[in-house]
């Protein structure tokens, strides 16, 4: 079985696992106050050129999202998001469970448009409505698409205009930043957002996301929220150790690039065989459209997820490549078609 | 100034106010455990032919909605509503503040369609999504439209099919049930829903809504929620006294009918002058479309709310009639055009 | 039956009811944006000598408390309160339902001691604990006791030292401020607290509490919270009208003084008959201790609440006087003993 | 430095780490739906002799506690706990952040007494109070003490009497069950509680807690809550793999026994030197009392936590042994005194 179901099907990249093993009997204080966490935070600050930013480590993305939103917003404040945003759809109402409405704007390509921020602001007239205070975007998005630098700058302008925080969910940031079509750097992201997270779980870590708080308004007491929402890991160093490996040299970006290379090969192969795509993805998630029988046949040999029905005869499926995907697997898959 | 801004612009219908005055020096226990509340509950039970139903009194509608939803749902459960539903739009995220997502289905006429329930259920596949557990509808709706008996029965069927509670927000129930186009009785509503509320604030009470719980599953410990969410009035008898007046004889329906008569007169007048309407309303809210300059001119003489822009030259405004609206006012308004 | 069960057994003081009746057919906008509310706010600002304070009107006290706490605190922040504080005990966990822990400090007389603030702060060491950010006190307290000016100043000092907001629940403020033993003015309270509310429900209003926000930090967006938490009354003017009556001249204080006079008479009578008291109350709640059989006998003639068991033979009960209590009733009661 | 600060100072027991490494390149579905999780659940079901119980895996204890409480209770329901209970003190108000009050009963030895359940129930009279619906206990407790079988049975009886769920926080269950003074089996615990969790983080796992739901009422939709509250790990198999190791043979109990042996040795040594203890602990947490200067001297050589001040001259500190503590370390420590 070729496994293209997701980018968290295996454990960790061997270098990361080795670091965990090597440090196993070290004795440290808990809760992320150890040297590994401090060092990993410094590596990240230095890589994003924001020595002043705060860095907090989480085990998973849902946790990171709702803890941040809960920390940033007052009870009547809301988040603007694409209607395909992960927080809108796939987190079992975690944001609402923390008390906040998500103002979902319909976006076929999963990218929030700057004009939709105007639209959302205008709609919420007075105190009978929630008050939008934050914009949530993902990069790469739930459909594998990416924001350009110009788009992100335009979104930033609207946020400034309306006094909104800009938060970027980087569960798949490595893939976005190493895509052939990308024109954003991680420094750009650190500059243009108020907060963003660097996803580890989907890019070779056993688990782990690094939240970066650039806007000083968002920093006070964040660790209280981290603890309250269940995100403070007892053996917090496990997160530090992993991000040390990812950011000591270039591993974080190398793993993203590998996933993209595998996706490029797959996309090119599928395109040359004439299959259309549901979204223009140049990252590690591809959304090809297949006739139903082809999809059924593939399912016998490949593990993947169904995205949606296209019409009576065709459906869209999702292939996800990762740091662990091999060229052999891609070739085998293409040979099936 | 002709006041058609809303149906809560005055105090109470004189008969209700008189009852409050007459009982003023009675000494009763607090929190809705007095004889007036018991008697009012009995009058309602008898009128809806559900002696087994529980009746709870609230001061306002937002309170009634979020307290009920909070009482009925577990944390991961969600409410399906028209995207124009009052809870979606005009309650400052009160439902989300209680932890629940609203699954908003776009409906141009503010009426949720039975098929949209199927759609919502199908979309929410597994535990990564919220779980729809309740359907919220308003009657009459935010656009003055109404559910037919057939429509309500069809919604009930879907609720039964999927194990959903059906809750009807009756802030303007009096107007709906006394509309010339209505084919539903209050008994039908008590039979077809699991819970609904009978709106007093917008139909001649100083304030007050009577929540009816028909489904026994929803009854236990409801008074705890009433207290916790701030809905338990110290001098609870004020609610009982008012609903005694409304339901002792037929006052509740007479007041609704009066509001509708005034709206009919206004609608007919506007139609005969050639003005189109944004929605097909036969209740006490009308949504005529006027050229911008006409709307501006009217605003000098009439107090009303803007609903929305139609195009560069026209806009939709809202007129609301009430138990207190006079024929003279309607005539004066029509004479302006 | 002599009714000393509580101070909200009747409707409204006749002057207040009359004002409601007189204004009944006035047409106003809703939600507290009418002239009566503006005028009432001005009367209060002027009476407390804080023209800069914001005033918001609520229907009831539980609502006022949880809405304020919810508006003032971030999710990890907590309220310090006497363990007998109304929010700790009698509000069905409304504060916790908004997400906040109450740090309850045991106080036999229901008065929080300034040193207990130190104690609470010291106990909460780091981010594994909640962070106390607010002090909640009631005046008069749940046991009828009162804060002296020196005590309130001392509490203020600790609040300043630790960066805590001071909030005073004035459900029975009228009784406190007109007590023979009181040395605080309403101006003192407005100066020494960050926020407090002036209770109307228990002092002659049909219902209503006026929240005063003195600290500018607490003001932004408060009306969003008022709406979200269900406290925004459609016919908001009802609150304005009542507080106009209470604060136009001196009615608020006269009603409190009357209740206290009745309590003084009752206390003196009981003392002269040798009955001890559970608390030193010089306000409108008295907590006499009776042998069980005396209490049982009284219950046949007087409506009151049981407070607690003292020992096998004696119990403490609560008598509450109000603006409506008559000298005849007190004399009758004393004659029974 | 001798490290007795806590039982999560190192990584994982080597056997567990090896299993993680060995399975690293396996490809599995995510979110705990893989074979390792199924197998681990079966091993636990079989070990506790409850094939019918549901088992869910979490990363940490705070998460397990608040997710369970949130899943089990309605908004007005509360948890009874010892005032030293972990949820009361060290979880930054996580339970309150989910909306529930903790009814904290003072207990010097951190063990909730059965009679305190009666007391809590009697105190909460009606709907103005929260409604206790669940009892939370820890075993071993925050002071290293343990429940006897008789005590647990008595607590169960009260829970049955009042319709309360009994939940046991087993963060340090391994140490409790292998203590020389223990008379409870894990089967007893599975029988006497409605839900409990088997702590891995503090007993040799890299991280992980296994929640056991015995009462069928608590099972429906639990995975929704697991996801919503951030507890659903993407690479869920990591939890399954670790609990397979802990429960395939007897590793879970062996590690607990080792920690206890080290604690026994330390306790005996301290006792023989005449140091008193703050609590009667026969588990892996010891609370010796030292003169301040002794404690200061020790702090230069041993890493530990301060528990509390005893008097001006003495203080209580906490030593925690673990699966990783060595006899050499204990000997070295004792040699210092």
UniProtKB/TrEMBL annotation, chains A, B, C, D:
Gene3D superfamilies: Aspartate Aminotransferase, domain 1 (3.90.1150.10), Type I PLP-dependent aspartate aminotransferase-like (Major domain) (3.40.640.10). GO terms for molecular function: lyase activity; transaminase activity. This is Aminotransferase class I/II-fold pyridoxal phosphate-dependent enzyme. Signal peptide: none annotated. Residues 12-236 form the Aromatic amino acid beta-eliminating lyase/threonine aldolase domain. InterPro entries: ArAA_b-elim_lyase/Thr_aldolase, PyrdxlP-dep_Trfase, PyrdxlP-dep_Trfase_major, PyrdxlP-dep_Trfase_small. Belongs to the threonine aldolase family. Pfam families: Beta_elim_lyase. Its cofactor is pyridoxal 5'-phosphate. One of its GO terms (biological process) is amino acid metabolic process. Transmembrane segments: none annotated. It comes from the Bacteria. PANTHER family: L-THREONINE ALDOLASE-RELATED, LOW SPECIFICITY L-THREONINE ALDOLASE. Keywords: Aminotransferase, Pyridoxal phosphate, Transferase. The keyword Transferase applies.
């Amino acid at each position: 079985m070729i496994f293209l179901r997701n980018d968290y099907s295996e454990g960790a990249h061997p270098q990361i696992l080795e670091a965990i093993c090597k440090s196993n009997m070290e004795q440290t204080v808990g809760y992320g106050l150890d040297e590994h966490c401090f060092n990993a935070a410094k590596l990240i600050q230095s890589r994003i050129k924001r020595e002043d930013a705060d860095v907090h480590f989480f085990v998973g993305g849902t946790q990171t999202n709702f803890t941040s939103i809960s920390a940033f917003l007052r009870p009547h404040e809301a988040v603007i998001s694409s209607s395909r945003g992960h927080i809108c759809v796939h987190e079992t109402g975690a944001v609402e469970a923390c008390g906040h409405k998500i103002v979902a704007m319909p976006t076929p390509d999963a990218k929030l448009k700057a004009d939709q921020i105007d639209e959302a602001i205008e709609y919420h007239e007075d105190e009978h409505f929630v008050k939008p205070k934050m914009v949530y975007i993902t990069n790469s998005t739930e459909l594998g698409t990416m924001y350009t630098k110009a788009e992100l700058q335009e979104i930033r302008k609207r946020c400034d205009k309306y006094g909104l925080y800009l938060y970027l969910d980087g569960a798949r940031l490595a893939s976005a930043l190493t895509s052939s079509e990308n024109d954003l750097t991680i420094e750009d992201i650190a500059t243009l957002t108020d907060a963003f997270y660097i996803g580890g779980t989907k890019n070779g870590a056993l688990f782990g996301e690094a939240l970066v708080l650039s806007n000083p308004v968002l920093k006070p007491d964040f660790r209280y929220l981290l603890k309250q929402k269940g995100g403070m890991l007892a053996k917090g160093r496990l997160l530090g150790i992993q991000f040390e490996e990812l950011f000591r040299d270039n591993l974080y970006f190398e793993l993203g690039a590998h996933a993209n290379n595998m996706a490029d090969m797959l996309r090119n192969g599928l395109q040359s065989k004439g299959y259309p795509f549901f979204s223009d993805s140049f990252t590690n998630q591809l959304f090809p459209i297949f006739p139903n029988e082809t999809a059924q046949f593939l399912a016998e040999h490949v593990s993947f997820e169904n995205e949606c029905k296209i019409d009576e005869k065709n459906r869209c499926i999702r292939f996800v490549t990762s740091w662990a995907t091999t060229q052999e697997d891609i070739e085998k898959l293409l040979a099936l078609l």
